Amino acid sequence: MFGRGVRCLSSAKGNLYALKMRKRQLWGTISATVLAGLTLAVFYFLQFYGPESAIWQFNEQVKEDAGQGGQLLSGAFSPNEKRFLYTLELMYNGGVAIQIPYMQRLGNEVDAIVLYTFPRVSGGKPGTSMAMIWVVVRSGKVWKVDLYQTAKIFQRNQTSLPENQGP
């Protein structure tokens, strides 16, 4: 009889230990889930912040506008800005993809190189690429594309090309 009661006590202790371990596992799972959710939320909100995001959003607006017949060009823009936007719309109609390989920040201004790559032609030759310098400025907490400066740099680079290479 004595041995039987000891077994009951030891199995009760074992059950209690197992219950404590399950509680720890549960709290570990809950805290890991909360931390993962918090991390995803931070990255979700940060995707709309920063100079790179401003460039991507601007290009998305131009891309959508190119698909809708170019209504963006009817706005009040300088001739340089209109030419720049028109060139972007033509490139998006051609199926261009973009990358931002380099950015240089100077205070509240960022100069970025944006690389536009056209798709491969049907013969299998690689598509051509075109690099543009974009200027993004921060006013308050918001980064915005400085269309005037970006178009000015684009125009200056276009006029320095040989006669046959400009758009």
Structure summary:
This protein has helices spanning 2-46, 51-67, 79-93, 147-159; strands at 97-106, 109-117, 129-139, 142-145. It is α+β, with helices and mostly antiparallel strands and 167 residues long.
Give a verbal description of the structure.
With 167 residues, the chain is α+β, with helices and mostly antiparallel strands. The protein folds into two domains: 1-46; 51-159, Nuclear Transport Factor 2, Chain: A, CATH 3.10.450. The protein has four helices and four strands, in the order αααββββα. It has helices at residues 2-46, 51-67, 79-93, 147-159, and strands at 97-106, 109-117, 129-139, 142-145. The chain has a four-stranded antiparallel sheet with strand order 1-2-3-4, sandwiched between helices. A hairpin with a 2-residue loop joins β1 and β2 (109-117). α2 packs across α3 (79-93) and α3 (79-93) packs across α4. The longest helix is centred in the first third of the chain and has 45 residues, at 2-46. It is elongated, with a radius of gyration of 29 Å.
